[in-house]
Amino acid sequence: MTTMNMVQAINQALSQGMAKDTSIIMLGEDIGTDGGVFRVTDGLLSKFGPERVIDTPLVELGIIGMGIGMALNGLRPIVEIQFQDFIYTAMDQIINQMAKIRYRSGGEYTVPMILRTPYGGGIKGGLYHSQSGESYFVHTAGLTVVTPSNPYDAKGLLMGAMKTDDPIIFLEPKRLYRTIKQEVPEEEYTVPIGKANLVHEGDDLSIITYGSMVPTVLDAISKNKVNADVLDLRTLLPMDRDAIFKTVEKTGKVIIVHEAPRTLGVGAEISALIAENRIDYLQGPILRVTGPDSPFPYRMEDYYIPGEKRIMDAVSKLIKLR
Question: Distances in Å between the alpha carbon of 242 and those of 2, 151, 233, 275, 278?
Fold first, then answer.
């Protein structure tokens, strides 16, 4: 075991995966010489050379298109987009090609490709470097959408993704890149994709969350001595319905926390799943604590991103229903 932050854990996963499988090719803007804008790919160019760690032009549509072409011809590309905000110029490639080729070809072709990108706020990046657009991808059949909340999961989920034959959107919460350190095994291991993780157990209520909000929720309930289940989804598509239903059945009170905007966010889908399948267990309304339906501000990050006060306001509202 070695103490690592998320950057180090992801870097080690990439290095170990590339060493084991020569079909893995990395491409993206400044990922080689500079090691990526957050230095996640630092040192990989010197280990694997410019034919496997490829610096690309600044054109997301082309980067992802090249990755799809590589995947269709026997390689396993890992594509990095510098910020998730820049991904929208390539949405045609993601939605109409990357996600659809298996279906369109009747299973004859697959796209074993990982698209890594940092997302979310917390670094004073302003509106063009802080967005949380996970719902766009969760809405798209054919994709798998993964987001870790800690270094251990980051390495294990990425190692698992490298063994998958279908396209994966790997969303990395940039606010957690260097703020959390954790014991991470040096050897290869995988964390199962599609399985949520109950990171805290309690009886009074359930808080369902993911990504950068997981440590925020854990800190809030620890400070305020809240007896709650905290479920880290880890995978947003496919979502672990069994884990969601289990915690709802246990507590009957549910709060969903995410940084992304409220309207049609992941929390809306979770609310609908619970209402359709486990409404008889509910002892109160399903509450959502989310980002507002507005562009991400530069000077008001602490207002935009859910924090302890907003989480505890929701907790207090449900606890009072006893």
Answer: 33, 25, 11, 14, 11
